[in-house]
Amino acid sequence: MVASVGHSCEKSTDLLSQYMNYKVSGSCPDDWSLAQKLILRGCEPLPRRRCFANKKKLSRECVNCFDLAGVENQRYVKSKGKNDFLLDDVLGLGSGGIRIGFDIGGGSGTFAARMAERNVTVITNTLNVDAPFSEFVASRGLFPLYLSLDHRFPFYDNVFDLVHVSSGLDVGSKVEKLEFLMFDIDRVLRPGGLFWLDNFYCANDEKKGVLTRLIERFGYKKLKWVVGEKVDAATGKSEVYLSAVLQKPARG
Questions:
Q1: pLDDT digits (tens, 9 = 90+) for 116-136
Q2: CA distances for 29 relative to 2, 20, 24, 53, angstroms
Q3: What does the pLDDT read at residue 201?
Q4: What is the pLDDT of residue 1?
Q5: What pTM, to 2 d.p., does this model score?
Q6: What is the mean pLDDT for each group of 10 consecutive residues in the chain (252 residues)?
Q7: By C-alpha distance, which of 20, 31, 36 is closest to 53?
Q8: Edge-to-edge order in the sheet of strand 143-145
Q9: SS3 of the chain
């Protein structure tokens, strides 16, 4: 019988051996990028180690990830285009009030910080891709959840008033994986709760079609639905994004 937790670690024995090579009772190696690779391969939860955690270092690719005075400063309160929904507008759509939410792929935790200003508690799911996002989210007085999207959400059914997700919903070309993720999102969202899809990048019409058909299977009410284009600053090419606010139906 295959173990329900951690059995995928056996598929990455080379990386696991590196991860478990450390000095007992000493400082843990600065190997959070290695831990990230293991998690993304399904090796979670990671095995416990008998060493003391260190402060994580930023990679060169993420020097501006935590620049709260820059791009993050106006997010959710000032719109740059039709795909950017304002936070107060979305909260006004919620029936029964919005008290607790879940942000999937929340990065530096700005969404949760904005919600906290409005007395809404949000748990931020994030991984340390190129930077110690979890530590940064915690330093802002917010709750980080270090968990990959291959893992079932550790919450009971129908507990959240709102689920917010952007690039976190991008699972590549694996349609079945996206389906499992959507069912888990639906499970933790209460009837009447809001599913906010925020600027999801549609690489092509097929990808947009797959997501649209999947969402329609759940019978959600479309409160907002916008497909728009943005110009990529690096390439100068136009890219298609989907933003939506959907309300979960009550099911018998």
A1: 999 999 999 987 766 778 888
A2: 30, 10, 11, 8
A3: 83
A4: 47
A5: 0.82
A6: 61 88 90 82 84 70 65 80 90 88 90 94 84 84 87 92 83 77 95 93 79 90 88 75 93 78
A7: 31
A8: 143-145, 121-125, 100-104, 160-165, 189-202, 238-247, 221-231
A9: CCCCCCHHHHHHHHHHHHHCCCCCCCECCCCHHHHHHHHHCCCCCCCCCCCECCCCCCCHHHCCCCCCCCHHHHCCCCCCCCCCCCHHHHHCCCCCCCCEEEEECCCCCHHHHHHHCCCCEEEEECCCCCCCHHHHHHHCCCEEECCCCCCCCCCCCCCEEEEEECHHHCCCCCHHHHHHHHHHHHHHEEEEEEEEEEEEEECCHHHHHHHHHHHHHCCCEEEEEEEEEEECCCCCCEEEEEEEEEECCCCC
What are the tokens at 157? 């059914």
Residue whose structure tokens are 């079932």: 152
